[in-house]
Amino acid sequence: MATLDVYSVNEKISCIENLEASALEREAALIAKDLKTYILNNFSVDGFQAKILDRTSSDTFKEMGTAISNAFLNRYTIKAEPSSRVKCPKVTITVSISFEF
To answer: What pTM did the predictor assign?
Structure first.
């Protein structure tokens, strides 16, 4: 199991982005349903990271899980970046809207 770091999170994001539509929908549903469990099932966390996950409210996980799930389903750009909390990647979702006339 991959460790919860920027590299591994970006690798997982890339894998999800390359799934076929039905598999992507299943993965997005898992993320939206329970982001904390999804993280724990897909990444190895250390003691510090476990404390952060335990201290995060279920409402926050629900909000973040819904946002990440929607971003995958809408094919928005998602990437993990280093954060001030060195052991916890920051996930950024970029929404690009372009119009042609």
So the answer is: 0.86
